[in-house]
Write a structure and sequence with these properties.
By secondary structure, the chain is mainly α. Helix content is 65%, strand content 0%.
């Protein structure tokens, strides 16, 4: 997996809290933020998350394509 460098803006107080947390855990800031993003994306819910819903949404899309 190739890592990409990104530029983001975070409130200074939040960044300080993140840095304190990663120091306690022995992580890097980038690793910590990547773990949070990954966990959030895995837990993502909404239309299409369930296999049956995804199939239904694809069917609806096909109707509108015709």
């Amino acid at each position: 997996m190739t890592a990409k460098r990104v530029l983001i803006s975070i409130d200074e107080r939040l960044l300080s809290r993140i840095d304190q947390s990663v120091a306690r855990r022995g992580l890097t800031r980038s690793g910590y933020l990547a773990q949070l993003a990954s966990a959030d994306l895995e837990a993502e819910s909404g239309p299409g998350r369930a296999p049956g819903s995804a199939a239904a949404l694809r069917g609806i899309g096909e109707v509108f394509e015709e």
